[in-house]
Amino acid sequence: MTSEIGSTVLGYPRIGPRRELKRALEAYWAGDSGEDQLRETARSLRVQSWRELHGAGLGSVPSNTFSYYDQVLDTAVTFGAVPKRYRELGLGPLDTYFAMARGVESTPPLEMTKWFDTNYHYLVPEIGPDTEFELADRTPVERFLEARELGMTTRPVLVGPLTFLLLSKSAEGAPSSFAPLHRLDDLIEVYAELLAELHRAGAEWVQLDEPAFAADREPAELEKLRGAYHRLGELTARPRLFVPTYFGDPGEALGVLAASPVEAVGVDLVAGSTTMEVLSGLTGLRDKTLVAGLVEGRNIWRTDLDGALSKAATLLGLAGEVSIGTSCSLLHVPYDVEAEEDIDPQVKSWLAFARQKVEEVVLLDRALHEGREAVRDQLDRARAPIEDRRNAARPHDRAVRDRTSKLRPEDAERGEYGKRRADQQRALGLPPLPTTTIGSFPQTTDVRKARAQLRDGRIDEATYNTRMVDEIRRVITMQEELGLDVLVHGEPERNDMVQYFSEYMNGFVSTLNGWVQSYGSRCVRPPILFGDVSRPEPITVEWTKKAQSMTDKPVKGMLTGPVTILAWSFVRDDQPLGETANQVALAIRDEVTDLESAGIGVVQVDEPALRELLPLRSELHGQYLEWAVRSFRLATSGVTDATQIHTHLCYSEFGEVINAIVDLDADVTSLEAARSRMEVLDDLNEVGFARGVGPGVYDIHSPRVPDSAEIEKLLSAALEAVPAERLWVNPDCGLKTRGYEEVRTALENMRVATERVRGSSRS
Ligand SMILES: Nc1nc2c(c(=O)[nH]1)N[C@@H](CNc1ccc(C(=O)N[C@@H](CCC(=O)N[C@@H](CCC(=O)N[C@@H](CCC(=O)O)C(=O)O)C(=O)O)C(=O)O)cc1)CN2
Ligand code: MET
Ligand SMILES: [Zn+2]
């Protein structure tokens, strides 16, 4: 048994190179295939990944990184944290698991939220004082044995106990003084039991992820970290422990881990800007392995191997062993850049997806341990694209630079709100409590098929456009029948709210197969922002005009904001994000003013990712919010006072961004609220928010259709906090993942409820 861990990756994609898992899951959920088929697909994906990683020459191959839905949910199930309402459904283990993930008719799913500052969503475990932790499921052991039978000794990966509890919420009914972390001691004993089983099964190393320590943490939490790993460390028969933090600087947690009995510590040397310095001051690593996360796990640029190697070399004296790793799991990047046939060859040569990153890790580790000479040819070959990218003219556009350099503060200012309000009311003549939706209507199979057919050349553009216009007509007609006040065109022509725009802007390339899991079976293909961004010609104007020509009601133009475009793309790392944000903002600004010129009086600029990009460390918040807010304002300040600017944020816990929402200065802001019972409005009042607001009255994440009485109650509650002339009525988010039947009924109920409330607030 070797003592070092060797080169490694912290995790790997699992949806399948051709989204095999997505298809298998959706077929199973639809009742079109059985459990055996789903399990077989899953198994073959695992085997394929292990073989690939093993074959590439990694020192240590991770296992248990596969999940049917989400690794946090897996952890909850492993340790018995299944809330009673799901147990009582009387379903088998797999269906109980899916009930927690997706809900069933009688029982909504667990809450879902963003995994740190990524676009991946995890399910939020519910932990109470009486949650009975037990080793309820042995999947990590089974997967270890599965790989073992194929001749591979893998390293099981688990969400660490601290991160698991810190990401959990208190179960309903728990006293307000309770926090899930209070249950750490109980939970640790079950982790200990699992470690013992893994040891008996032959596991040499186990990875316990603790990314929660890249965010601000209390001294008491650091103390718990110390206690937990001390306890796990003192177990006699256990595998070696490898504890990585990632997504930023671990700060003081690094010292705690260095002083603990764990055998290996992992750090993110890409996102963590001060970690190198902290490491050089630590002595506790002398008898440990340091896994240096030098290959970025969440962006797609090739690694500058020379730079990484010199960093790694300075670490050599600090730890007993140094191994090369990825900065975080590769879950956040696509499988293989070689599967991309349409990306411009020069840009493509700059890219590394999961598979290429594994090669980089292996090569770096060899260069570090066998010497540069041993791998000279490979290093030379790897250097070429790095230098090419550094010197390339491609990313630079003089006109874009000129424009951003001439920006003045007043370019991000609109007229005084009172005047805007009066002008807009005159132009639009809306009733009190205007009704609207967030933009997308159901993306039907027909719409997606038409897009696939256009791509394969089976239909021409004219045919495609006709089909989209037909879909727009259906959406407009439906909204007129429902009597909504501000209509939308429904976004059928968009594959995704970010990818779509990127395909019409300079500075981006998009992928054919670059799928990344967002939640469950849902994936996105983040576009690659490689150069200066501009918008050569209008993108949405023709579609919006078409929709407006079908109705006398105002049609709301629908755009994605600069922060969200950055957050959901792979962005260039050769200039500050704020600079890139200005460029994207100006491109969107051009679109906003073109919509206005085309007679569109209401334009929504979505910023659902404003919160997601908020740095994990509070000391960095101010700087981020400054450029984020400025870029939104830049995008939306080119219009006259009479044009109404909406924005949409689909979350309800604003926390640190609440003042930023005021600063966005949008005329109307829609946000999620159905599940939080309108409490968000009080939060907004507290910071002096005094613009139009549309707290969602209907949760679109669930197939459940709310009745009108329920919506009426929510509206009445909203009216306690916001006067009728500022209150808008809308769902929580876009309707693209729902079906037409449920959408029609839900919106009908929303309209009925609104009329009742309008009637009673007049009398
Ligand atoms: N980028 C992004 N991030 C986001 C959101 C978002 O809307 N966009 N919303 C929040 C929630 N996240 C979400 C992420 C994905 C999806 C989603 O629905 N994704 C679709 C894919 C959307 C897409 O790109 N569709 C393409 C390609 C569709 C496709 O699979 N086509 C088939 C063929 C057509 C068919 O038979 O259906 C194929 O290529 O094989 C299109 O419409 O053109 C999916 O996984 O199913 C929803 C929400 C937060 N993060
Ligand atoms: C994730 S926010 C979605 C906003 C977009 N306009 C939609 O309705 O789908
Ligand atoms: Zn939304």
From TrEMBL:
Binds 1 zinc ion per subunit. It catalyses: 5-methyltetrahydropteroyltri-L-glutamate + L-homocysteine = tetrahydropteroyltri-L-glutamate + L-methionine. 5-methyltetrahydropteroyltri-L-glutamate binds at R19, E20, L21, K22, K114, N119, R522, C523, W568, E612. The active site is at H701. One of its GO terms (biological process) is methylation. Catalyzes the transfer of a methyl group from 5-methyltetrahydrofolate to homocysteine resulting in methionine formation. Belongs to the vitamin-B12 independent methionine synthase family. NCBIfam families: met_syn_B12ind, PRK05222.1. This is 5-methyltetrahydropteroyltriglutamate--homocysteine methyltransferase. It comes from Actinopolyspora xinjiangensis. The gene is metE.
